[in-house]
Write a structure and sequence with these properties.
Blueprint: H1 2-31, H2 35-45, H3 47-51, E1 56-63, E2 69-76, E3 88-89, E4 92-98, H4 104-108, E5 112-113, E6 120-124, E7 128-129, E8 134-141, E9 147-149, E10 156-161, E11 166-171, E12 179-181, E13 184-191, E14 200-212, E15 215-227
Parallel strand pairs: 2-4, 7-15
Antiparallel strand pairs: 1-2, 1-5, 3-4, 6-8, 8-13, 9-12, 10-11, 10-14, 14-15
Length: about 230
């Protein structure tokens, strides 16, 4: 008799154990956050880090051709230094995308973005120069906030086009003092020395930053020109 009771108890305990295991599995499954939610959280945690890199326009969810989530897309402008970009953020692999090559949908769905992108505008007084001519550079702050630069020439320098990519060409002489640019514009003049500026395509680049609740956010602008 007691043996029959023991067997019944064991069966009941076994059933309870199975039910408990199934409940635990179910709870563990529903408690795991979806991938897209984890990516959003990862990007929010790394927002300051990413937007503190010159050339990063924003970031969002990377998907393959079948719309499957594969990681994080980081959208960049072509002033970015690729070596400064992370290969991974948390558990996710990163994919670097040129902002100008991204679709309108990708741009719309960016989770974090640099809202100062293209609010630092750089122009030159004409597109084509002769060696030894003087060009006038206009640096404009199109935002409602103050941009800051690491020198008195608004972080400006020159790059040359080598047929494949932009490379550093020459700096500009200025005082190494923190310089603010309020909404508005400033002008810089520079002589294109024939010994330094040979016939080819160049651009002048200005880099600075703005500081807010998200940290230090980079701003940049550039203008291309040709020397004949």
């Amino acid at each position: 008799m007691w043996e029959k009771i023991d067997k019944k108890i064991l069966k009941v305990l076994g059933i309870i154990a199975i039910i408990a295991a199934l409940v635990l599995i179910y709870i563990s499954q529903i408690s795991v956050k979806p991938v897209d939610v984890r990516i959003v959280e990862t990007l929010e945690e790394n927002k300051g880090r990413l937007l503190g890199i010159t050339g990063v326009v924003g970031a969002g969810i990377a998907r393959d051709e079948s719309n499957r989530i594969i990681g994080i897309s980081i959208y960049v402008d072509d002033v970015v230094n690729g070596e400064s970009l992370p290969d991974r953020l948390g558990e996710f692999k990163t994919y670097i995308r040129r902002f100008d090559e991204a679709s309108d949908l990708e741009k719309e769905k960016m989770i974090i973005r640099n809202y100062y992108f293209r609010l630092l505008k750089v122009t030159v007084d004409k597109d084509v120069f002769q060696a030894n001519e003087t060009l006038t550079i206009v640096v404009q702050n199109l935002s409602n906030e103050t941009f800051t630069f690491g020198n008195s020439v608004y972080g400006a320098y020159f790059e040359r086009w080598d047929g494949k990519e932009w490379r550093f060409h020459a700096g500009m002489v200025g005082l190494l003092v923190i310089t603010d640019l309020n909404p508005g514009e400033e002008r810089i003049t520079y002589k294109l020395d024939a010994g330094l500026f040979h016939p080819r395509k160049y651009r002048v680049v200005s880099k600075g930053w703005v500081e807010n609740e998200d940290g230090i956010i980079r701003v940049w602008g550039y203008a291309e020109f040709t020397v004949l």
